[in-house]
Write a structure and sequence with these properties.
Length: 258
C-alpha cells in the first residue's frame, strides 16, 4: 500500500509490474483524477513491454490495451471523456498529458454517495475545478455549437454549486447535482481540448506539488484577462452567468471569479 498515490513514473512502473504478474484482464480505477490516469496508463501499457519512461518520452500509447472501469470519488474528472492521461516524472517533476489511441474506459460509474464525507472546502474546490474546465471548454478554439451549449450549461450548474456549497454540501441532493454537473462538464471538455489553465495547473502540480484545483482556480482569471481571449464576444455571455445575483450583470468574468 502506498500513501498519497499519484500518477508518477515510479508508481506506474510498480503498478505495471503488478498488473503483468497478475495477468490482469480488467483494470479498475477508484479514486481521484490521479488514480484515474494511473488506471488508464496501466491498462494501455500492461499488455506490452512498455515502461513509464518510454510512455513519458513518446507522449502517447498507440495500443488500445485492457478495458478500464472508472469509479471517480468526486466530480473532478476532467479527462472523463478524453483519451488522455496525466503522468508526472518522479525525478524531474515534469508532467505530460499522454495521448491514448482509443477511448480508455469501458464504463464510468458515478456514485454520488462516494464524496458524502468530503468537507465543504474540498467540495468547493471540486466545484471550482469543474467551473474552470467548463469555462475553458466554452472558450476553446475547437468549440462548436453543441459544445458551447453543454459548456454554458455546465458553467451555470457549477456556479450554482459554488454558491450553495457552504450550506448544502452535506445534502444528498447537492451530491446528485455535483455528479450531474461533472457529467455535463466532461461532455463539453471531451468535445474541445485542454485549455491553458488546465495545462499550466498540471505543470505546477508536477513541479511544485500545488493541488491542481487550487492552481487552476487562481490562474483562470488571469487567463481570461490575457490576450488569448481579449475581445471575445463569449466573455459577455460568461459575465452574465458568473456575476452574483446582487451585482449588476455584465461584470468582467475574471472579476466575478475572483
Amino acid at each position: 500500500t502506498r500513501i498519497g498515490l499519484g500518477c508518477d513514473t515510479e508508481t506506474l512502473d510498480d503498478a505495471l509490474s503488478l498488473a503483468r504478474g497478475a495477468h490482469a484482464d480488467l483494470i479498475i480505477g477508484m479514486g481521484g483524477e490521479k488514480v484515474m490516469s494511473l488506471a488508464r496508463l496501466i491498462a494501455a501499457a500492461s499488455s506490452r513491454e512498455l515502461y513509464a519512461g518510454d510512455i513519458l518520452n513518446d507522449g502517447y500509447v498507440d495500443t488500445p490495451g485492457l478495458p478500464v472501469l472508472e469509479i471517480p470519488s468526486s466530480g473532478r474528472h476532467s479527462l472523463m471523456c478524453r483519451n488522455e492521461a496525466h503522468l508526472i516524472d518522479r525525478v524531474s517533476g515534469n508532467s505530460a498529458l499522454i495521448q491514448l489511441s482509443a477511448f480508455p474506459a469501458c464504463t464510468v460509474i458515478m456514485d454520488e454517495s462516494l464524496p458524502r464525507f468530503m468537507p465543504s472546502g474540498a467540495s468547493a474546490m471540486s466545484a471550482a475545478s469543474l467551473l474552470a474546465a467548463s469555462i475553458e471548454a466554452y472558450l476553446s478554439p475547437r468549440a462548436n455549437f453543441l459544445s458551447d451549449i453543454l459548456a454554458l450549461n455546465a458553467v451555470e450548474r457549477n456556479c450554482a454549486l459554488l454558491r450553495d456549497v457552504k450550506k448544502l454540501f452535506s445534502d444528498p441532493e447537492y451530491r446528485v447535482r455535483e455528479t450531474e454537473a461533472a457529467i455535463v462538464t466532461a461532455s463539453s471538455t471531451g468535445m474541445t481540448e485542454s485549455g491553458p489553465g488546465m495545462i499550466l495547473s498540471l505543470a505546477l502540480k508536477g513541479s511544485t506539488g500545488v493541488p491542481k484545483a487550487s492552481a487552476y482556480t487562481i490562474l483562470l482569471p488571469w487567463i481570461l484577462e490575457s490576450a488569448l481571449h481579449s475581445g471575445s464576444p463569449k466573455l459577455q455571455n460568461l459575465a452574465r452567468i458568473l456575476s452574483p445575483p446582487e451585482d449588476s450583470p455584465g461584470e468582467a468574468p475574471a472579476k466575478a471569479i475572483r
